[in-house]
Amino acid sequence: KKLKMGFKQIYGDTVYGFLFDYKMDYARQLLDSGSYNVNEVGLKIGYSTGSHFIAAFKKKFATTPKKYLMNLSQNL
Question: Which CATH class is domain 2-74?
Fold first, then answer.
């Protein structure tokens, strides 16, 4: 319990929230690289199915990974 409280004091977030944000930011970097498709990125960051990854990505960024990639390619 002290560890959780100390972590939140230092980082301003829960351990779960911190890890979720870290994984989603890494996923976005992988998508940006163009080297991996959506399912590969999901597996690479620890999701067992593409649908779980897509739901998590949408929760964080308010868009699906596919739409994110489409917007990325339009802005190049």
Answer: mainly alpha
Domain boundaries, the chain: 2-74
Contact 23, 32 (CB under 8 A): no
Confidence (pTM)? 0.86
pLDDT tens track for 6-53: 999 999 999 999 999 999 999 999 999 999 999 999 999 999 999 999
Q: CB neighbours of 65 closer than 8 A, spacing ≥ 6?
A: 27, 31, 38, 41, 53, 54, 57
Place of tokens 């409280």: 5
CB of 27 within 8 A of CB of 41? yes
